[in-house]
Design brief:
This protein has helices at about 1-20, 280-285, 300-305, 310-315, 330-340, 345-350, and strands at about 20-30, 35-40, 45-50, 55-60, 65-70, 75-80, 85-95, 100-105, 110-120, 120-130, 135-140, 145-155, 160-170, 200-205, 210-215, 220-225, 230-240, 250-255, 255-260, 290-295, 310, 325, 375-380, 385, 390-400, 405-410, 415-420, 430-434. The strands form eight sheets. A six-stranded mixed sheet has the order 3-2-15-16-18-19, with no helix packed on it. It has a five-stranded mixed sheet with strand order 5-14-4-1-17. By secondary structure, it is mostly beta strands. It has six helices and 28 strands. The chain is about 10% helix and about 40% strand. The protein folds into three domains: about 20-70 and about 200-240, Immunoglobulin-like (Sandwich), CATH 2.60.40; about 70-195, Macroglobulin (MG2) domain (Immunoglobulin-like, Sandwich); about 240-434, no CATH class.
């Protein structure tokens, strides 16, 4: 009997390990059939990584790093020396002027460091230093290109991890370029042309982990929630969601509805007319027309939480939301909440996880992909309250002459609460696809 039990446990362990060995590839449909990049967030383990749209995500209990599928001599990203000791150089081509993000990750997919800069077209050299002994990978991403490479470090001591830009060489005609320099050497304006490699990228995964996948194609971004149980292709349905300020929003399908996956931040109505930014407390309290503000009149708050709008903005005939979108009615909010199990549990499924923005302990799983943030409110009298504690969102439905319906969530609760309040309050907005 003991031998049978041990055999069963061994078979179970092998089956469990095998069940964690999945490969996820990506495709696009709708407004675009191509995928430029995919951000992968393991919401259970709090790890993340970024892939090229043609890369394959390998979910495994044992992570070994990046496996290059294309071993062409004309690589996209050059690391030298590699393996490295104290520091190394990172060379790549910016094929156009663009905002570029450079991220360093360990073999579990945890991001160690990230820098973002506006780079001119041309060849760029960075210095990387301070990483301890181990295997890492680096991602270089913009709207125009995405490169990956594995780095092996034999550095025996800890240091301050830094990525510094140390040189730029302007871009030149690739058809006429040749190079007598070592591979990856920049500084003379001569380098072989670069092209994208396809990679299998490992990410640590345990059965039951929940993934948030954000696919990007040009200006389109779509969220797809997944608890993988098999090798499969994830198809992102790309939908246009661009406001009058040319802000592009992530979208997510929840039940039969398609929602913005972030709070609105426009400063203009759909026709281009400006929405007044009212900062004065007394002026805000006397409004009977549309206006917006930043929380605490601090613009950087809107980068994370979006802007706060009074209800008169919501029902203005010039429209607040992007073309093809609208502020949801009270009934449409109810449909969302009901699709997630009702008011007593839906808040947990809608809120962003962890305590980066919500106060701790934040009771949340974000299994819907809605990623609700605690943008707080501006009261009718102009004062600001509850950042990090509450999130409030308008509906377009009126309660009476003075009040309108809204929904709110609290950090230490599973609930989505329904209430009505002054139309002069400043609340967040999520738009719903028509």
């Amino acid at each position: 009997m003991k031998k049978i039990t041990l055999l069963f446990l061994l078979i179970f362990a092998i089956a469990k390990t095998y069940a964690q060995n999945y490969q996820i590839s990506f495709a696009g449909t709708g407004a675009s059939t191509t995928v430029d990049s995919v951000q992968v967030e393991n919401l259970t383990q709090c790890t993340d990584t970024i892939l090229g749209g043609s890369d394959i995500l390998h979910l495994t209990a044992t992570v070994v790093g990046i496996n290059e599928l294309n071993t062409s001599a004309e690589n996209t990203l050059h690391i030298y020396p590699n393996p490295m000791t104290g520091n190394c150089s990172v060379d790549f081509e910016a094929t156009a002027q663009s905002k570029t993000t450079i991220g360093l990750y360990d073999i579990t997919g945890k991001r160690i460091l990230q820098v973002q800069e506006l780079l001119l077209k041309g060849y760029h050299t960075y210095s990387l230093s301070g990483i301890n002994s181990g295997i890492y990978f680096i991602k270089v991403e913009s709207d125009k290109f995405l490169y990956t490479a594995k780095i092996i470090s034999s550095n025996a001591t800890f240091g301050i991890v830094e990525i510094k830009h140390i040189g730029t060489t302007p871009g030149i005609d690739k058809q006429s370029t040749t190079s007598n320099l070592p591979t990856g050497q920049a500084g003379t304006g001569k380098m072989k042309s670069l092209k994208s490699d396809k990679s299998v990228i490992d990410m640590q995964y345990t059965t039951g982990d929940r993934l948030k996948l954000t696919g990007k194609s040009g200006v389109y971004r779509t969220v797809f929630m997944l608890v993988p149980t098999q090798t499969q292709t994830v198809t992102f349905n790309f939908v246009a969601c661009t406001d009058a300020d040319n802000n592009n929003y992530s979208v997510v399908q929840i039940g039969t509805q398609v929602w913005m996956a972030e709070n609105l931040k426009t400063t203009k109505y759909r026709n281009g007319d400006p929405i007044p930014n009212v900062t004065d407390y007394t002026a805000w309290s006397n409004l009977i027309s549309g206006a917006y503000c930043d929380y605490d009149n601090t613009p950087s708050n809107s980068t994370i939480y979006g802007k706060l709008y009074n209800w008169y903005t919501i029902v203005d005939s010039r429209n607040l939301c992007p073309t093809g979108w609208h502020v949801p009615t009270d009934a449409e909010w109810t449909s969302l909440v009901d699709s997630l199990g009702g008011e007593s549990v839906a808040g947990r499924k809608l809120k962003e996880i962890d305590s980066a923005h919500w106060q701790s302990p934040n009771l949340a799983t974000n299994e819907s992909g809605f990623t609700a943030l605690p943008g707080a409110m501006r009261s009718w009298n102009g004062t600001f309250d509850y950042i990090g504690v509450y999130g409030y969102w308008w509906s377009s439905s009126e309660y009476n002459t003075y009040d309108a319906w809204y929904r709110y969530m609290y950090y230490f609760s599973y609930d989505v609460f329904k209430n009505y309040n002054d139309k002069q309050n400043g609340l967040s907005v999520r738009c719903l696809r028509d």
